[in-house]
Design goal:
Length: 340
């Protein structure tokens, strides 16, 4: 219990002058009661941290959606853009590729070990970190405890989801001996290089550098945790992710697209892969809306696995395309260094 006493002293020093006392909220009292009974938290400690929840103004503003710091994308996009053009412009620009190559060079040893253990190629783990946190340059500026409290007990329509994330965040902080009011993350409570939600820590986070701590701010732990996440969600080693397909016309409306819909390739008349695609299982059709046409892709099981990290097909395609760009830019040393 010395841990709790130390935390309370720290909280007194860290408490802002302008804060909200959430102890007055009946739902918070119920939450405290559950945490006390189920996980044996001291009520006095929980009441202390809920007494001075920093207002939103204490959290630096989150970057606007789909923007990144210091991104100088050299790709020119026409004024008329499709939804995929806009999305790709923000997530798979030249900076992302160049920094991804540098990241792979700097963390070659851990990426290689993770590939050997979990079967996930280094370029895909690198692409996740590039898109999620811009290779650690944008891990988030919100205080996670305060942000999750506002979401869990405010007017958000996913309050129950955020109450669970808050619960798991507090449990994670206790396991890892972290003062919860000092942790920063995204506007939704995601943390570190891999932007893990708190509920993912116990299931997927890995202490890969064996220092007795799990930290998503640590490159080795973040890299391995992503590999473990993909592996446990069904990633298949040495199998493709996606391939572009051809079809008749400029806009595709013939069949349902997206990860919920799977097709046997023999039934996809007039839809053929543009490159060799050694994959015999059912495929998904992924449509990317461009300015003057739709791009169509076959998606394999590994494409679906990427969507377990973020359910958007655009997100998974951005990861795939960025991974391929990084691999190509890495050059001839790729196979030698990673032995793939």
């Amino acid at each position: 219990m010395q841990y709790f006493r130390t935390l309370i002293l720290l909280l007194l020093l860290l408490s802002p002058l302008s804060a909200t006392d959430y102890n007055k909220n009946p739902e918070v009292q119920s939450f405290i009661e559950r945490m006390s009974k189920k996980y044996h938290y001291k009520k006095s400690y929980l009441q202390m941290i809920f007494k001075s929840v920093r207002k939103e103004s204490y959290c630096p503003p989150c970057p606007k959606k789909n923007t990144l710091p210091n991104e100088k994308n050299t790709q020119k996009i026409s004024k008329k853009q499709g939804s995929w053009d806009k999305y790709a412009h923000c997530h798979i620009g030249d900076n992302h590729t160049n920094m991804g190559v540098k990241f792979m060079e700097e963390h070659q040893k851990n990426l290689k070990k993770v590939y050997e253990q979990y079967g996930v190629p280094p370029e895909y783990i690198t692409a996740i970190i590039g898109i999620e946190s811009y290779y650690g340059n944008n891990n988030g500026h919100y205080y996670v405890f305060d942000r999750l409290t506002h979401l869990a007990f405010g007017n958000d329509n996913r309050r129950k989801f955020y109450q669970y994330e808050l619960q798991e965040f507090l449990r994670m902080c206790y396991r890892e001996q972290i003062e919860p009011r000092r942790v920063k993350g995204s506007h939704s409570g995601a943390i570190g290089l891999a932007q893990f939600l708190p509920s993912n820590y116990q299931k997927f986070a890995v202490d890969f550098n064996k220092d007795g701590k799990v930290r998503m701010s640590n490159h080795a732990d973040a890299i391995a945790s992503i590999g473990n996440y993909f592996n446990k969600n069904g990633w298949k080693k040495n199998t493709p992710v996606a391939v572009r397909a051809s079809y008749k016309g400029n806009r595709f409306n013939g069949l349902r697209t997206g990860t919920p819909y799977k097709y046997q390739r023999r039934n996809l008349k007039n839809i053929t892969p543009k490159e060799p695609f050694n994959y015999k299982d059912d495929v998904m059709l992924i449509k990317l809306a461009r300015a003057n046409h739709d791009e169509l892709w076959y998606g394999a099981k590994n494409f679906y696995v990427i969507t377990r990290y973020n359910h958007s097909s655009y997100y998974a395609m951005a990861v795939h395309q960025l991974a391929q760009k990084i691999k190509k830019a890495y050059g001839k040393g790729y196979r030698k260094n990673f032995k793939l």
